[in-house]
Design brief:
GMP Synthetase, Chain A, domain 3; 100 residues; elongated; alpha+beta; 19% strand; two-stranded antiparallel sheet
Length: 100
């Protein structure tokens, strides 16, 4: 897997976790629940943009449960990290070369 695929997978697994937690809490079936995540490539600087998340459940949902799953998914740590750009520090450390 490429690093961008891992990022999408991380977001998808986080979303799936929270969706499943909601379904379990309300004694709704989790079997057959699918999460799809995609994103577009953007330039200047190169990055992923316009993430699309789709949660598909295998049973009919009332509007209350649809909104409940949506609210639950919004608690996902990865989702919130991407929504609120984090500070990122970079340090390059190299081994010291020994001379004879």
């Amino acid at each position: 897997m490429t690093p961008p695929e891992l990022l999408l997978g991380s977001l998808g697994s986080c979303v799936g976790f929270y969706a499943a937690q909601y379904l379990k809490k309300h004694e709704l079936a989790t079997e057959g629940t699918l999460v799809r995540v995609s994103a577009d490539k953007a330039k200047n600087p190169p990055r992923l943009d316009d993430f699309q998340i789709e949660v598909e459940v295998s049973l009919p949902l009332s509007e209350e449960h649809r909104l409940g799953i949506e609210q639950a998914v919004r608690h996902c740590l990865i989702h919130n990290t991407l929504l609120h750009a984090p500070q990122i520090s970079l340090a390059i450390k190299a081994a010291v070369l020994l001379t004879a």
